[in-house]
Amino acid sequence: MKVIIYSLIFLGMANAHAAQVQVCNNQITKSAPDSRYQLQANNSEIKDNTTDLVWQRCPLGQNWTGTVCTNTAAISYSWTSALQQAKNIGDGWRLPNIKELKSLIENACYNPAINLSLFDGTPEDAIYWSSSTNIDDATTAWTVNFADGAAQLKAKTTPIFVRLVKNQ
């Protein structure tokens, strides 16, 4: 029991800059290793070399300082507000569809299930909007819970985090 507690404390200190205690299984091959990505735009954007998509490094509401995402937490938005924010930012930025958002999942890790060395502004229990509406209920849309990488339906009025994407 002490080994587990000490390991969690060590992991917490290793990721203190991100305020997470991410847990990874080194026996599982990483699905989103650093080598998959290329930093762009003064490291504030990340190109996924597998999908050719470009992601904002920080969640909407945070800014890249050159070393970390600023602000203590990202801002949550309703689905409609998230779409509007992307439109206001322009320059091709948009809400990702559910398949695009799921492509960020790191299968070897949880709390959060994402590459934290690149997407360090991701809270451990963060749920993010996709642009994909539920075809059976137009009042809900698909999200990804990066605590465990699960896709979930949420009411479009629910305040949820946003990470924007654009095509290369």
Could you give a quick summary of the protein structure above?
By secondary structure, the chain is an alpha+beta fold. Helices cover 17% and strands 23% of the residues. It has helices spanning 2-14, 79-89, 98-102, and strands spanning 23-24, 37-40, 45-48, 53-56, 109-110, 127-133, 140-145, 150-155, 165-167.
Q: What does it look like?
A:
A four-stranded antiparallel sheet has the order 2-3-4-9, with no helix packed on it. The chain has a three-stranded antiparallel sheet with strand order 6-7-8. It has one domain (2-167). The protein starts with a helix and ends with a strand. It is α+β, with helices and mostly antiparallel strands and 168 residues long. The chain is globular, with a radius of gyration of 16 Å. Mean pLDDT is 87; it is low at 1-18. The chain is built from three helices and nine strands. The longest helix is centred in the N-terminal third of the chain and has 13 residues, at 2-14. A hairpin with a 4-residue loop joins strand 3 and strand 4.
Write the layout of secondary structure elements.
Blueprint: H1 2-14, E1 23-24, E2 37-40, E3 45-48, E4 53-56, H2 79-89, H3 98-102, E5 109-110, E6 127-133, E7 140-145, E8 150-155, E9 165-167
Antiparallel strand pairs: 1-5, 2-3, 3-4, 4-9, 6-7, 7-8
List the main descriptive attributes of the protein structure presented here.
168 residues; alpha+beta; 4-stranded antiparallel β-sheet; 3-stranded antiparallel β-sheet; 3 helices; 9 strands; 17% helix; disordered N terminus
